[in-house]
Description:
By secondary structure, the protein is mostly helical. Among the domains are: 60-144, no CATH class; 323-420, no CATH class. Helices cover 63% and strands 1% of the residues. The protein has 33 helices and two strands. The chain has helices at 9-19, 23-36, 64-72, 77-92, 102-110, 116-128, 135-144, 148-159, 166-174, 180-192, 199-207, 213-226, 232-239, 247-256, 263-273, 278-291, 293-304, 309-321, 325-331, 340-353, 357-372, 376-388, 395-400, 407-420, 426-440, 449-462, 469-473, 484-497, 504-514, 525-538, 544-551, 553-558, 564-577; strands at residues 56-58, 587-589. Strands 1-2 form a two-stranded parallel ribbon. The protein starts with 8 loop residues before the first helix and ends in a 13-residue tail after the last strand. Residues 1-38 have low confidence and may be disordered.
Amino acid sequence: MPWLNLLSQRSVVSAVHRLRGLWLLLLLGALVGPALAEERPDFLFFSDPTFERPGDVKVFAPKLAELWKLALERPEIDMQRMAAESIVAGTAVDVPNLEIAIPRLRELVSDPQTDLIARVAAARALVALNARDSAELLARAASEAPGDLRRVCERALGDWQYAPLRETWRERLASPTTRHRDLVLAIRGLGLAADPAPLDELLKLVANRRSATEVRLEAALAAGRLQTSGLEPAAQPLLESSGEARLVDRLCAARLLARHQTPAAHTALASLGGDTEPAVAGEALRLLNAIDPQLALPLATAALGSPDGEVRRQGVRTLASLPTPERIGLIAPLLDDPVPDLRREVRQKLQGLLENEALRESIWQGTTAMLAAPGWRGQEQAARLVGDGKHHPAAASLLELQTIPRAEARIAAARALREIAVLETCPKILQRCSDLTQQRNGGPTLDGLDEQCAFLFDALATMQYWEAEPLWRKYIPKQPPMGLYSRSSAIWALGKRYAGMHDPALAKELIERLTDPATVPPELEYVRYTCALSLARMGAKEMVDPMLAWAGANNLRTGQIKTEHALAIRWAVTQLSGEKFPDLVPIPAGKTGWFLEPFVNQ
C-alpha cells in the first residue's frame, strides 16, 4: 500500500498502552472544545466593513477510515475497541468513507468469541453509522449477551421500530422473572413501536409499587404514548398519593395523562402542577404548557416563586405565552434569576414581546427597575435588553453601571451605550475611558476592563465624538497593558475619524504596527487587522506595496488566506488601488489527534 506506512505491530501495541488513558480525553476535547468556546464580542471592527471570508472545507487525514478498518482486524482487544470508538466519534464530524468498516463491525458483533468490550464498541459503531440492515444481527447479539451489549442493541432496535423483536419484548413484559434492565428495554421498545397489545401489562407495572422506579416511569411513559384517552381511572389512585414516598406515583400519573385532552385529565395535571415536590410540579407544568398554556395559568404566578429552576421556567413560559402588562411585571424580576439559561430566556422572551406596542411600556418599566436593582445578573440582562431594544431613556442608568465591580454587567452596559447612541452621554463615556486608561497604567486592574473600554470606544466612534482622538492615539503603540480589544477598537475608530482625510503621520504609525516584524512579543492579530482597515479608509495609497509585501502578494492573488489581517489587507488593497482579487480558497478544517492516523509518504 504505497499511500501508507503502517506502524509495526510492536509500536502499535506500545502506542495503545501509552494512549489508553489519554486518547478519549483528547478526542472529546477536540470535539467538544469548539462548541464550548466563547463567542467573540461583537465589536464594530468585526462587522464594519463586511467582506468575503473563506469558507471551510472538512479535511481529514487521507485513508483514515481504511486505517481504522485495518485496526478493527487486529487481534488486540484495545485496538478493536479504540477503532470502533473512533468510528463513533468520526460520524459526529463527518469523517468520510466510514461505512467501509461495517462488514468488519458486523463480524465483531456477531462472533461470540469476540471480547465483550470490543463487541459493545462495535455495536455502538454500527448504530452510529445507522446500519439498519444490521438490525437482525443486533437482535441476535442482544439475545446472546445481556448487559451492555443488549442495552446498546435494543435501544437502537427500539428507535428503528424493529418489528421482529416485539414478541420477545411482550414475553419479557409478561414474565415475573425478567431483570428490570431488560424490562426497561422491552417497555421502551414497545412504546416506541406504538404496540397497544401490552397496555394492560404496562398499567400493572405502573401500579405495582414494588417494581423498580425506572421500570414504573418507563411503563407510564409508554402507556401514555400508546393511549391518549381513557387512562384517568389508572391515574387516579396515583394522584391520591402524598409525601416523598409516593413521588414516583405522581410522576407516573403525569406521564400517563401527558397526551390526554379531557377536562378530567387537565384537572389532574393542574393538581400535580401545584405539587410540593418540584420534580412533579415541573413535569406537570411542562405538560400543561405543551397542551395549552391557559391550563397552567392559575399556577404560573406561584411557580415563579418556586426554589426550583425548572418550575420557575415553566411559570415564565406560561406568562410569556399569554402576556399582559401585569404579567410582564411578574416576569421581569427573573432577569436576575440565578440560573444562567433561565435569565437569558427571560430576556429573549421580553425582547420578542417588544413588538407588541401594548406591552412595551411595562417591559421598559420592569427592565429599568432591574438596571437600578443591586443584582449584577439582572443588571447584565437588563442592559442587554435596553441596548438591543434601543431604549434611550436608560442612558443614565447605563452610565452609572460603568463603575460597578461586576464585569459582566459593566461590559453589557458599555455595549448598550453603543447601541442606544445618545450623544449627551459622550463626555461621561470619554471620561470613563480616560479613567480606565489610567488604571491600565498603574491603578488596580478591573476584570473585563479591555472589553468594557473597547465597547465604549465603539460608542464614541458611532456618535462621531472626535474629542476622543487623543486618547485613541495612545492605544496605537504596542503596549500590552492597553489590551487587545481596546487597541483594535481605538485604531478602527481612528479610521472612521480620518475617512477620506489622509494623515501621513498616522498612516506611518499604522503601517509600522501592521508590518511589525518583532516576534517577542508579536503584534496582535486584530491590531494588524484594524490597521489595514483604517489605512484604506484614510486613502493611504502609498501603503499598498508594504501591505502586499507583508501579507504575501501571491497568497492574496491566489486566495490562499488563513489570517484575519491578510483578509483585511486584501480588502484594503482593493479599496486603495482598485485591484480585484480572485475568489478565496476554502480553508481546510478537520480534526487530527485520533488514536491512530496514517503516515502519508511525501
